[in-house]
């Protein structure tokens, strides 16, 4: 497994959660990486990206609430999610985007990690 997401759970609106994506060293050191999510009954969508150099960009729906970062010691990418809302409920996945929009990715999708936001 090249990338494996973890850290999901069930939280209430307004809570915070931090997701981790473990990445093999070779991929981590040489690739832009990104988080995506797929809500029940909806298409998968781009959430956030971080380049090799640390530049980030976010989907408008999470801008100001989510922060993506790289842990260069643990070879992981992190997604700090604050002020969660029910619309953030989804399976969160990580991958290597091949284009800016994240329409194409390098690796097969894994199972991801489920985040449920509900009161």
Instruction: Return the structural class.
Output: mainly beta
Q: Summarize the main sheet.
A: 6 strands, mixed
- What percent of residues are in strands? 35-45%
Shape descriptor: globular
Distance between the termini: 34 Å
- What ranges have pLDDT less than 50 throughout 5 or more consecutive residues? none
Helix proportion: under 10%
Strand order of the largest sheet: 2-10-9-4-5-6
* DSSP strand tally: 10
Gyration radius over CA: 13 Å
Question: What's the helix-strand series?
Answer: EEEHEEEEEEE
Oligomer status: single chain
Q: Note the total helix count.
A: 1
* Mean of residue pLDDT values: 94
Overview of the molecule:
By secondary structure, the protein is mainly β. Helices cover 5% and strands 44% of the residues. The chain is built from one helix and ten strands. The strands form two sheets. The protein has a six-stranded mixed β-sheet with strand order 2-10-9-4-5-6, with no helix packed on it.
């Amino acid at each position: 497994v090249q990338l494996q997401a973890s850290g999901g759970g069930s939280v209430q609106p307004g809570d915070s959660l931090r997701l981790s994506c473990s990445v093999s060293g070779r991929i981590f050191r040489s690739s832009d990486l990104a988080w995506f999510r797929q809500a029940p009954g909806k298409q998968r969508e781009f959430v956030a990206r971080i380049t090799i150099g640390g530049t980030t960009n976010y989907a408008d729906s999470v801008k100001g609430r989510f922060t993506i970062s790289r842990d260069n010691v643990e070879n992981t990418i992190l997604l700090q999610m604050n002020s969660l809302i029910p619309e953030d409920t989804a399976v969160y996945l990580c991958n290597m985007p091949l284009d800016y929009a994240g329409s194409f990715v390098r690796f097969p999708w894994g199972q991801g990690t489920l985040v449920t936001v509900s009161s």
